[in-house]
Design a protein that fits this description.
mainly alpha; 6 helices; 2 strands
Amino acid sequence: MRLVILAAAAACSVILGPMPVSAQDHAPGDPRRNQAAKLAGLAGFVNLECPGLRSDPARLKQSVEAMGVDAANLEQGELLLAANAYIEAYRRDVPASCRKAEAMFGPAGSIIPGMVVPR
């Protein structure tokens, strides 16, 4: 399972795009921590901007911890700053970002199924 989550995180980076410049300034050096911040940012974005969708906190926590990152660390310091930068990056095109989130992380998602669910 851990290998699947790590592969999914790498695919997430390719599909969702490069890290926004503002996130690069605050992101930690470990790629797993970067991916965890990206997932947290995506979850936060979905909760704020996507009508009819929400993130599943348990699935997010499971995915992040499978990457070797303590989910509690996403709520403070550099990981929080990086996650917030991702939220802003996804807001550049809300409709497209919501569609991608559902396609890749929804119930039948291609990356981490079930991380984004209907409200």
